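Entry for the shared binder. Reason: the reviewer on the internal report wants the predicted structure included alongside the sequence.
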Amino acid sequence: MRRLFRRLFLALILLSIICISSAQAQSPQGKNFGFGIVLGEPTGGTLKFWTQRPNAIVVNIGSSYFGNLRIGADYLWHFDAFNSDIAFLYAGPGAAIGFGEGKGFWYKGKNGFYFRENKGAGLGVRGVFGVNVVPQRTPLEFFFEVGALIGIVPDFGSAVDAALGMRFYP
């Protein structure tokens, strides 16, 4: 199982490097790479690589709600739904890998909420929808997104992700 996660992570890094080298940017000030912070699910760092005019790959790494390390990547399509030069909608599929101890809870009879622990790694797929704002003449991008996360390994489950963040384009 760990070998699979290592291969997926390596493939994600290689894909990101390839996309950086051939990007046609639509980002702040025409830059094709940005980095910043994200608050929510996960809370940590974020990288964005513009691959074509409306498309980008986003990689997030940070702590999930229960304190575990989580790495995720999304492939996004940006839409000019507001007929604006600074605000865009975006959507796309993605995946997330969580490492370490995980906790879940459920209701069990008269005893109330019951906690369980699971050590190891988990894999999930997600769909994300958001809005980003790129103020004119600044190297910044602000974003808000929500998404549905479906856990596949080690157990099947679902969750709702929400995040707010900012990226800087050097």
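Summary line for the report: The chain is about 10% helix and 60% strand.
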